[in-house]
Amino acid sequence: MNSFEGMAHELERQGKGDALKRLAYSEDGKRIGRMVDAEKLKQAAQSGDGKALQDMLKAVLSTDEGRRLAENVRKMMGK
After folding, report:
1. What pTM did the predictor assign?
2. Cα–Cα distance between 18 and 75 in angstroms, integer?
């Protein structure tokens, strides 16, 4: 299981799954979804290409939307 799946499972376990879904479907979440090449993300995850995943994450976090989304997830995690 990767760390994203782990975070999602932990939020579900804490009863925050609906809040996570609201974030994913928020305007920021939708914009990020359009930014990320889903096929490249899937291939990088399946092949264990940490460098490619890290580069994608850096690109997302370099945007205002990505920073807001990350901050909201951090708050949901209680950290």
Report:
1. 0.70
2. 15
Q: SS3 string of the chain? A: CCHHHHHHHHHHHCCCHHHHHHHHCCHHHHHHHHHCCHHHHHHHHHHCCHHHHHHHHHHHHCCHHHHHHHHHHHHHHCC
Check: CB of residue 63 under 8 Å from CB of residue 35.
yes
User: If the chain, 79 residues long, is cut into consecutive pieces of 10 residues, what is the mean pLDDT of each piece?
Assistant: 69 85 90 90 89 92 94 84
In degrees and rounded to multiples of 5, residue 12 shows phi and psi of -60, -45
CA distance 43 to 29: 21
Q: What is the pLDDT of residue 1?
A: 45
